[in-house]
């Protein structure tokens, strides 16, 4: 692959950082957007040392939807265009807190779904016009079926998946790849409080899968791969039975 | 959450934080007490254990690289494995490396680790130009041999007791290949082994694998491996998949009969007195890294590594008396490594002194601590000492007798607000409160 201009949204997420390192090693040019300014700056330095052709960065608050257009204009002018975008920001909100508060629920939906949908709406038109490129978005296996333990997060990720399906259908004729990434359990700051077991993967593993899926023009990526059969089974359980399970 | 070192003994119920930025880390230091930094947890005992642990693994960014001088500025939670992956293909190698690459830069500095080239190049800190430390009051300071030298010399080898290293400048070594020319020599006993070390003093890397169960005339029989970087311009290794020990093996697997069989198989595998090979840097420096979590081989009880150094003056006889006691105990070791050290450096707690060091594992079982106490006596009699990063049990008296500069460490810790903030189970045991 020759030099690509890649926009990474939520660039300081552990999964995004690991993926960005692979892009840097290939000599791509990167534009990083993230909320944590201190980490963003040191990440930019890291990616330069690792071989990225050019690295830009700017602060980004997902829920400031009004700032998006100006931000994209800035990316366009500094990076000179966008060949690939990876959207990675997200929050694994507290399900119990969401049940107790409408504000908390809407906040989760805003950050995980609406902010992404807003951004993709703007980006899709650019990609459709340029007739090439890749839009990769991190969803989750949690979006495949609603479960009592995290259905607010799941709702957001599920909405994203359907939005991306439609977008893929729309952009196929423009030769734009739309990749829905569905990780299982990944050991990152988001899941720091969870006890880890054999189903857990490292962000580096997810990053390697993402890179390969982009290269192979895939549509949907379950990562690690074994989540595909696991979710196939979970999705196939009839609702009559499923509703009684404590999942 | 129960946390342990590599030897899986002892264990502490700890809270672990993994700050994402230096500012976040500094905030936790300023608000905390009784905390200690932890990198990859490859120290064997209780050096990186405390009720509150500050993990550095999220601080793993490379910050700047001066390609002409090989000078890398880097966050302290970066592992040596990560550095090798980036820099070997560009023709740079670590100036000093321990026997595992799964350690952090901060951990390598805090233990002032040594490698197979200590006799020529010294410890890891010899290649550290400067570092940035978060002190007990949450402030951030730089230090080097020229700036706050007392803090630098207390921190290199200081086992995390002066503050949290967050950044360092490391001088890398130019190489022309990812491969090593290795030559293996057989030594029938300790005397031959030491003579081989002398004879190969000028070779960059040397280490001996020693059969600690052999006794009598074969006491100290060993294989000496020396190596030099190849110059064949092949900077990229062909990949292999690591093995892993997925569950705790029954401790039975490691009784002395299996170990004896292992030892003689290993020794006899090398048929000629001298053999040459071209091997990857991975297989030369990190033979055990190919088996993830090999520490589980010792079972749930865990194990202790015992590494001591005896000064050159004690020589063959000193080493022999200790080795004889180990052989006699029949408690044996899966791995015993013998290495020649060059001169000591100016750091307050760095382990190496000119002489010989032996490192071996003991499964934790009844009677072991008594044996180790006895070995401590012999080591101290010879003017030697134990390596803090391997230690889980030496007494305060043993430590203070053999690390006479500990009082200067305490003075520096006092001056830089470390006392009362940074402490580990080991520091408490050794009277370094
Ligand atoms: C298989 C194996 C082989 C080894 N071979 C060698 C060898 O050949 N030579 C050798 O010298 N050592 C060797 N070691 C020991 C190892 O190199 C050291 O224990 C090293 O310090 C481990 O680094 P770590 O990142 O895992 O640190 P940890 O084990 O997490 O911590 C070790 C010490 O460093 C301190 N520390 C860690 N990070 C920081 C920081 N950022 N700031 C301040 N203090 C910090 C901790 O508080 C603790 O006191 C070996 C260990 C193993 C498991
Ligand atoms: N970890 C898993 O098990 C797992 C599984 C499936 C899917 N995922 C998805 O993978 C993606 C990456 O997560 P991760 O696991 O790498 O966790 P992570 O390291 O915690 O990353 C999450 C990132 O989202 C950013 N973010 C959150 N809210 C934001 C906002 N309002 N504005 C801007 N940025 C915001 C965070 O920024 P701050 O640092 O500033 O908070 C952080 O960088 C997420 O979409 C997540 O849902 C993760």
TrEMBL record, chain A:
GO terms under cellular component: membrane
Keyword tRNA processing: no
UniProt keyword annotation of Oxidoreductase present: yes
Keywords, sorted A to Z: Oxidoreductase
GO molecular function: oxidoreductase activity
Family in the record: Belongs to the short-chain dehydrogenases/reductases (SDR) family.
PANTHER family assigned: DEHYDROGENASE/REDUCTASE SDR FAMILY MEMBER 7B, DEHYDROGENASE_REDUCTASE SDR FAMILY MEMBER 7B
Protein known as: SDR family oxidoreductase
UniProtKB/TrEMBL annotation, chain B:
Entry superkingdom: Bacteria
Gene3D superfamilies attached to this UniProt entry: 3.30.465.10
InterPro entries documented for this protein: FAD-bd_PCMH, FAD-bd_PCMH-like_sf, FAD-bd_PCMH_sub2, FAD_lactone_oxidase-like, Oxid_FAD_bind_N
Signal peptide limits: none
GO MF terms held by the record: D-arabinono-1,4-lactone oxidase activity; FAD binding
Domain (FAD-binding PCMH-type) ranges: 9-175
Keyword entries, A-Z: FAD, Flavoprotein
Pfam families membership: FAD_binding_4
PANTHER family named among the record's database cross-references: D-ARABINONO-1,4-LACTONE OXIDASE, L-GULONOLACTONE OXIDASE
Descriptive protein name: FAD-binding oxidoreductase
Organism: Pseudomonas mangiferae
Lineage of source species: Bacteria, Pseudomonadati, Pseudomonadota, Gammaproteobacteria, Pseudomonadales
């Amino acid at each position: 692959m020759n030099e690509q201009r890649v926009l990474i949204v939520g660039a300081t997420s552990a999964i995004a950082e690991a993926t960005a390192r692979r892009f840097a090693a290939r000599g791509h040019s990167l534009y990083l957007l993230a909320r944590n300014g201190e980490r963003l700056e040191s990440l930019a330095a890291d990616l330069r040392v690792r071989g990225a052709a050019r690295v830009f960065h700017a602060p980004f608050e997902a829920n400031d939807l009004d700032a998006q257009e100006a931000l994209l204009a800035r990316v366009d002018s500094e990076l000179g265009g966008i060949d690939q975008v990876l959207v990675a920001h997200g929050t694994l909100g507290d399900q119990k807190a969401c049940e107790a508060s409408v504000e908390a629920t809407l906040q989760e939906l805003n950050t995980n779904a609406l902010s992404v949908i807003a951004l993709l709406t703007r980006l899709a038109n650019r990609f459709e016009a340029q007739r090439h490129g890749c839009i990769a978005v991190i969803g989750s296996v949690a979006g495949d079926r609603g479960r009592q333990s995290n259905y607010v997060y799941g709702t957001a990720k599920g909405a994203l998946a359907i939005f991306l399906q439609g977008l893929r259908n729309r952009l196929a004729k423009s030769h734009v790849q739309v990749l829905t990434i569905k990780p299982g359990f990944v050991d990152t700051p988001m899941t720091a409080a969870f006890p880890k077991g054999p189903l857990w993967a490292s962000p580096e593993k997810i990053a390697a899968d993402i890179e390969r899926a982009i290269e192979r023009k895939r549509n949907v990526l379950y990562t690690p791969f074994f989540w595909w059969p696991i979710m196939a089974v979970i999705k196939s359980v009839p609702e009559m039975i499923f509703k009684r399970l404590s999942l | 959450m129960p946390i342990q070192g590599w030897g899986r003994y002892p264990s502490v119920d700890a809270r672990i934080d993994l700050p994402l930025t230096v500012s976040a880390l500094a905030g936790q230091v300023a608000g905390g007490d009784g905390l200690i930094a932890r990198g990859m947890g490859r120290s064997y005992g209780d050096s990186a254990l405390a009720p509150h642990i500050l993990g550095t693994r999220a601080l793993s960014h490379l910050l700047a690289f001066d390609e002409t001088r090989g000078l890398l500025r880097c966050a302290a939670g970066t592992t040596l494995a990560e550095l090798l992956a980036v820099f070997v293909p560009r023709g740079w190698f670590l100036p000093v490396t321990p026997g595992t690459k799964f350690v952090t830069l901060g951990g390598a500095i805090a233990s002032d680790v040594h490698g197979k080239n200590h006799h020529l190049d010294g410890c890891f800190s010899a290649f550290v130009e400067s570092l940035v430390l978060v002190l007990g009051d949450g402030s951030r300071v730089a230090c080097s041999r020229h700036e706050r030298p007392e803090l630098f010399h207390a921190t290199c080898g200081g086992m995390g007791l002066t503050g949290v290293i967050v950044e360092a400048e490391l001088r890398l070594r130019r190489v022309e290949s990812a491969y090593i020319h290795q030559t293996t020599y057989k030594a029938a006993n300790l005397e031959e082994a030491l003579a081989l070390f002398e004879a190969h003093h000028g070779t960059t890397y040397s280490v001996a694998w020693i059969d600690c169960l052999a006794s009598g005339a074969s006491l100290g029989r060993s294989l000496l491996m020396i190596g030099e970087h190849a110059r064949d311009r092949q900077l990229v290794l062909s990949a292999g998949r690591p093995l892993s020990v997925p569950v705790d093996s029954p401790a039975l697997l490691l009784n002395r009969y299996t170990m004896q069989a292992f030892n003689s198989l290993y020794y006899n595998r090398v048929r000629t007195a001298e053999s040459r090979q071209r091997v990857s840097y991975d297989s030369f420096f990190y033979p055990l890294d190919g088996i993830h979590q090999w520490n589980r081989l010792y079972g749930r009880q865990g194990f202790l590594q015992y590494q001591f150094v005896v000064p050159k003056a004690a020589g063959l006889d000193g080493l022999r008396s200790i080795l004889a006691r180990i052989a006699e105990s029949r408690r044996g070791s899966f791995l015993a490594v013998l290495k020649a050290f060059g001169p000591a450096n100016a750091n307050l707690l760095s382990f190496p002194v000119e002489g010989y060091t032996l490192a071996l594992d003991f499964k934790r079982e009844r009677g072991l601590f008594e044996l180790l106490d006895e070995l401590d006596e012999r080591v101290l009699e010879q003017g030697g000492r134990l390596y803090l990063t391997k230690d889980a049990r030496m007494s305060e008296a043993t430590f203070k007798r053999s690390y006479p500069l500990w009082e200067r460490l305490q003075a520096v810790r006092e001056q830089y607000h470390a006392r009362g903030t940074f402490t580990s189970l080991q520091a408490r045991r050794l009277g370094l409160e």
